[in-house]
Write a structure and sequence with these properties.
The structure holds 2 protein chains of 2 kinds. Chain A is α/β, with parallel strands linked by helices. Helices cover 35% and strands 19% of the residues of chain A. The longest helix of chain A is centred in the N-terminal third of the chain and has 16 residues. Chain A is globular and about 55 Å long. Chain B has 15 helices and 11 strands. In chain B, α5 packs across α15. The chains are: A alpha/beta, B alpha/beta.
Chain lengths: 382, 386
């Protein structure tokens, strides 16, 4: 793969209800932050990929709402990915690799405050065979959490430790929505939403927009900012029907990670990666995805977590930003992971900076129970 | 222009009908995928990645890329979903092009589909527009098109009889296309006598809504000629999605098409499109567009579209046949419609378009149009691009 770098990032603060902002207002803010970060003007953006979801936005052709704000509607070539922002970035990357463009602006936005999460995620189920069962994202993921816990002897306390860590990390991230100082008991005492998931095991549904700017090698080397290089990327989709999958095994994530690491020349990710930003929509997911990403053995994440390995001061900090538990603008969440990884690799993460981070992994996903994953490996060394 | 040159090596279309109660969405997708794989003599194991798209609210299914893997064959493969409204199908073909040109994937399967019978199409389209400023004054796709037609008629004195001539052309062409949904010749009088839907658009001026899917397989230059003796080479793409609010539209001309055409033709060295192109599959959802948009394409000067249509130049057998497939007026599974344009041009380039084949084609153009006055474009060639 030719060299491509991330040369600009922009994130709005993640909030429960940005009542004063339309989709376009959020996109305008994130895009201008990214342009300022990259010391670029919109004229230097060769093409734009926006990422949105018609169900979450309550609009057909939801990308239309941010056309002007992202510059997509201003005489540029453009496209729209529907899914997590990491997939939008993936398509944006291929548009550069194709040779057609030197830079791609990628955005992803969502306003959970204007949406009904249970209805929207229930609509992901097949209308004939399983929608009427009433499953939604939370209840489907509760099934997966139970399957994973049963397989590896994971206890509710193990899940709770993820919540304590990530909400605690969020205390240091000014963009996070839910900075909380918690104990394991606080998590276990919080309301049971869908057994075994307590309220504090679940991420919120938030408002936010993230933008990143990708550049080919030539443009990245000319950039005013230190480029963060994309060394590997891959995505992979598992089966749709939950009954067709072994829910306790993140098979498609492992496959995507394997391909991404192969591209990056990473042989032992648990040793070679210094920081990970993963899609912790629920506490159990962080443990599962850590294992799927090869950062711990299957079933081994809980022990490493308990030892403090994934803490900010540990050998392999996971979600130092606070992750999705700290704020979860659906669709944008994976792109926030990439932008947070960039901050770490630039050494700009302030009080949640991981010392000496050189290699980061960021992950996003689509569908129920992590059906389809996108994995990025990033490196600050040219 | 790309890192890897890219060609279309196969395509497939489903049986297109106004209602396909015999299949569910996944089965409809599967039908197109199997047709494309068999056309290219490939199996799913040969496919490296999948690009799929539709318009969610027409079926009411969220995360379609995930839900559809049993039909698309995406299991344990990279799958991405692109959605841009009416342009979805053409956006998909452009997406497949970039994925292959990137060098990351050798062969990519591109799928556009829609099961329009499962929803209230106009109800769904109306939600595309800004809930505060536009939605209350804008009902579905046809009203905006009627405004465009009226504005053009007022500017240039064109009539609904001129537009009817375009409908007659496309509906005649459709009779030669076994994939078309509506295969019936009509006369100008029949078009003008058909019910008025939104003045000046008559029923026979406008596209139907269709259940159907289309799949296209693209491959890079390392394998394309091994897979297909006459691959359809992609010379370039351009698009403009330049509209957010109704008041931004220059009704009476399609600025997005003029902008995309200018860029695409400049990039690919097309100086006189009317002379250099031999076939166009225009995403033309209603007959008036057949007059207006060929001006934006630069085929004829402003105001001269109708004259060119009446000359017969765009009929099969004319100097530059447009929509030999019968076009969108004859068949419109929305998320697939733009991709069908691309597939149809590929058949023309391969010399495999049967009764609707245009003789001696060297370069062809496929376009996509969305309800927000957007344009996507792809230039196809018989020869490998420089």
């Amino acid at each position: 793969m030719d060299k491509v770098a991330i040369i600009g990032i922009g994130m709005t603060k993640i909030e429960a209800d940005k009542r004063g902002d339309t989709f376009a207002d959020m996109a305008w803010e994130a895009v201008n932050l990214a342009l300022a970060d990259a010391h670029m003007t919109i004229a230097e953006v060769d093409n734009v990929v926006t990422t949105s979801n018609d169900f979450w936005d309550g609009r057909t052709i939801s990308c239309m709402a941010v056309g002007d704000a992202t510059g997509a509607g201003q005489g540029k070539n453009t496209s729209c990915v529907e899914g997590d922002g990491t997939f939008g970035a993936f398509y944006g990357l291929t548009r550069i690799l194709s040779g057609a463009y030197g830079t791609t602006l990628v955005t992803a936005h969502s306003k959970g405050s204007e949406s009904v999460s249970s209805l929207i995620t229930n609509a992901a189920l097949d209308p004939i065979y399983d929608r009427a069962l009433g499953l939604d994202m939370v209840t489907a993921c509760a099934l997966q959490a139970r399957a994973y816990m049963h397989r590896h002897g994971v206890k509710p306390e193990d899940l709770a430790r993820v919540s304590v860590k990530n909400h605690g990390n969020a205390l240091r991230n000014p963009l996070a929505q839910l900075p909380l100082k918690l104990t394991v008991e606080d998590v276990l005492r919080s309301e049971m939403i869908a057994d075994p998931l307590h309220l504090l095991d679940c991420s919120p549904v938030s408002d936010g927009c993230c933008a990143i700017i990708l550049a080919n090698e030539q443009r990245a080397r000319r950039s005013a900012r230190q480029p963060v290089w994309v060394t590997g990327v891959s995505c992979c989709a598992d089966a749709y029907y939950l009954g067709d999958r072994d829910l306790a095994v993140p098979r498609s994530l492992a496959q995507a990670a394997k391909r991404a690491y192969a591209m990056a020349g990473i042989h032992d990710p648990a040793r070679e990666v210094q920081v990970a930003e993963v899609y912790d929509a629920f506490t159990y997911q962080e443990l599962m995805w850590i294992e799927g990403l090869g950062l711990a053995e299957a079933g081994g994440a809980k022990d490493r977590l308990e030892r403090g390995d994934f803490d900010l001061e540990g050998p392999l900090p996971v979600n130092p930003s606070g992750g999705l538990l700290g704020g979860h603008p659906v669709i944008a969440a994976g792109l926030y992971r990439m932008a947070e990884a960039v901050k770490q690799l630039r050494g700009e993460a302030g009080s949640y900076q991981v010392d000496g981070a050189k290699v980061a992994v960021a992950q996003g996903l689509n569908g129920l129970c992590g059906q389809s994953h996108c994995v990025w490996t990033l490196d600050n060394r040219s | 222009m790309g890192k890897k040159r890219v060609a279309i090596v196969g395509s497939g279309q489903t049986l297109h009908r106004s209602r396909r109660p015999d299949v569910n969405g996944q089965e409809l997708i599967h039908e197109a995928v199997q047709a494309a794989l068999s056309d290219a003599d490939l199996t799913l194991a040969d496919i490296d990645a999948i690009v799929i798209g539709n318009m969610d609210h027409f079926e009411g299914i969220n995360y379609v890329d995930c839900w559809s893997v049993d039909g698309s064959g995406g299991w344990m493969k990279p799958v991405i979903k692109l959605t841009t409204g009416g342009t979805t199908g053409s956006t998909l073909s452009i997406g497949g092009y970039h994925m292959v040109a990137s060098g990351l994937f050798e062969k990519v399967l591109i799928i556009g589909w829609e099961k329009n019978s499962e929803s209230d199409t106009t109800g769904a389209i109306t939600t595309a527009f800004d809930p505060i400023w536009d939605r209350l004054v804008f009902a579905g796709a046809i009203s905006g098109l009627a405004v465009e037609a009226q504005a053009y008629m007022a500017r240039y004195g064109a009539t609904d009889r001129d537009a009817a001539r375009v409908a007659v052309r496309d509906r005649r062409h459709a009779c030669k296309n076994p994939h078309a949904q509506l295969r019936q010749e009509v006369t100008i009088e029949q078009v003008l006598a058909s019910p008025m839907l939104a003045d000046p658009i008559h029923l026979l001026d406008v596209c139907p809504r269709t259940d159907g899917a289309c799949a296209v397989i693209m491959a890079n230059e390392d394998v394309a000629e091994k897979l297909c003796p006459t691959p359809d080479w992609i010379w370039g793409t351009a698009n403009r999605h330049s509209y957010t609010y109704l008041a931004d539209v220059n009704f009476g001309a399609l600025d997005s098409m003029a902008g995309a055409a200018k860029e695409l033709f400049a990039k690919t060295g097309i100086k006189e499109p009317r002379k250099q192109l031999q076939v166009i599959e225009l995403y033309q959802p209603y007959s008036f567009a057949g007059i207006i948009w060929i001006e934006d394409l630069g085929l004829v000067p402003r105001g001269k579209g109708a004259e060119y249509i009446w000359s017969g130049a765009t009929d099969l057998g004319g100097e530059l046949p447009i929509n030999p497939s019968g076009g969108v007026i004859a068949c419109n599974p929305i998320g697939a419609t733009g991709l069908i344009r691309c597939a149809e041009v590929s058949l023309q380039m391969m010399g495999r378009a049967g009764e609707r084949q245009v003789p001696e084609v060297e370069l062809g153009l496929s376009t996509g149009f969305g309800g927000c006055m957007w344009t996507d474009m792809m230039l196809h060639g018989k020869r490998k691009p420089e």
